[in-house]
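Archive entry: two folds, one per protein. Generate the first.
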Amino acid sequence: MPMSILARMPKVSEFYGIRICQYYGEHNPPHFHAQYGDDEILVGISPVRMLEGSASRRVQSLVTEWAAAHADELMENWRRCEAAQAPFPIAPLV
């Protein structure tokens, strides 16, 4: 039975209305998705950088600040997702 869409999109954090997800079976380079309203950006983990998508500068700034503070946890979650294991939750930006 195919994995449901929701099972492929585990949320690892959420802050200020920004949802951070890391998907199973993703392509390189290691990255995560940040969703805010109808906007979505793909953000590289090492180094932290915008890869695709669009969002306001404010959202991009908050996401990159958070990602820089949690880069090690994001990479560990990337490895877990590659191994079809659920990623761990990561503390939100406060």
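Generate the second and append.
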Amino acid sequence: MKEILDLLMILVIGLTAGWLAGKLIKGASYGLVGNLVIGVVGAIIGFYIFEILGISIQGLIGTLISAIVGAAVLIYILQVIKKQ
């Protein structure tokens, strides 16, 4: 049961992070599934960014913030690649 709740939490955080990052970076609209993928991958990127910078991530809010940062970085990279 805990695994299901963990997976649900990852999906909710990913979707929220992808959607918020899309709002922060203009012109970035990827739809529901796209936002979910960007949010989940962004959460992984954000975790590593925060780890490299030595910033401690704690709790749901910390996880969401790092996921948003990672998703924003991912969207920026995707936009740069798309322009080339």
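Annotation attached to the second fold: The helical segments are 2-24, 31-53, 59-83. The mean pLDDT is 86.
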